[in-house]
Fold:
Amino acid sequence: KQEVTQIPAALSVPEGENLVLNCSFTDSAIYNLQWFRQDPGKGLTSLLLIQSSQREQTSGRLNASLDKSSGRSTLYIAASQPGDSATYLCAVIQGGSEKLVFGKGTKLTVNP
Amino acid sequence: NAGVTQTPKFQVLKTGQSMTLQCAQDMNHNSMYWYRQDPGMGLRLIYYSASEGTTDKGEVPNGYNVSRLNKREFSLRLESAAPSQTSVYFCASSRQGQGRDEQFFGPGTRLTVL
Structure:
């Protein structure tokens, strides 16, 4: 059974710092991995999708990498801002499956 | 584009009552999903519809039914609500299923069953 772990559960950083969020998964036979952000009381916003054949994806100040063989992904946020404060979730999907398996998220606080 | 919309935003039910959660997407997506989010459990898939006219069970389908009314709309029904169904429910859609495209989520319905 696929399990997704995100460490740390919470992270607090000063504004302007570059930071890395970690995601690990137990079964490397994934089809893709998706990073989301969730603001309190809100829905999930898709940030980046990495297909299993890709090593990384970039969107603005965000860069996500994928290492299938080691079962890891990282989300790099450059020059963090208070508006980046949210919970970040990663999710993986197996080939042929419809089910996204989610981690429990990392709650990020960026202090002004 | 409104993306994925859900109604209602909030609902309080008594045990045994029934209700239907509505979801619609305007992105011409083929696949639609219902998830629930619970503290400490994360998001779990309840049901999905890979294409118009098809529905399948996800990880936690007990106590729920779904209808894919047309390509745009996918509803979730609780026939006899139980306190264990207190949760936040999210609808999502993707252009293609089976992980080939990213999933887009609605704003959620916060349901309390007393």
About this structure: The CA atoms of residues 30 and 96 of chain B lie 6 Å apart. Chain B touches chain A through 27 residues (CB under 8 Å).
